[in-house]
Amino acid sequence: MSNRTADVQQTLTTEDPEFRQWVEEHHRCEDRLTELYGKGQVTDDEEIEEKRLKKRKLFLKDQMAERIRSYGSAHVA
User: Fold this and answer.
1) Which helix (H) or strand (E) holds 41?
2) Beta carbons within 8 Å of 17's beta carbon, 6+ residues apart
3) How far, in Å, are 32, 33, 55, 62, 73 from residue 38 at the CA level?
4) I want to staple 12 with a disulfide (CB 3.0 to 4.6 A). Which of 19, 49, 57, 60 is the partner?
């Protein structure tokens, strides 16, 4: 991640409540996936949860990336 992108992400995390919510949810998904990966075996329900979490995490990442691009374009230094 470039310094500019990191700066924009930090600004959005601070100033944009929706973006901050996406970041927090992304971290929660990551934390839960880490828990699931740490288990020796997962149940069928946990496997379904893992797939759902991966999809949600990717969706959130795409949302954040788009917001960063939009913000960066609108606030060119």
Assistant:
1) none
2) none
3) 10, 9, 19, 26, 40
4) 19
Give the start-end residues of each E strand in 1-77.
none
Contact present, 12 and 68 (Cβ < 8 Å): yes
Residue 2: how many CB atoms within 10 A of its CB? 8
Q: Measure the CA–CA gap between 63 and 73, rounded to whole angstroms.
A: 15
DSSP-derived secondary structure for 4-42: HHHHHHHHHHHH-HHHHHHHHHHHHHHHHHHHHHHSSS-
Cα distance between residue 9 and residue 11, in whole Å: 5
Token pair, residue 27, equals 């971290």
Q: Residue-wise pLDDT tens for the chain (77 aa)?
A: 678 889 999 999 999 999 999 999 999 999 999 999 999 899 999 999 999 999 999 999 999 999 999 998 888 65
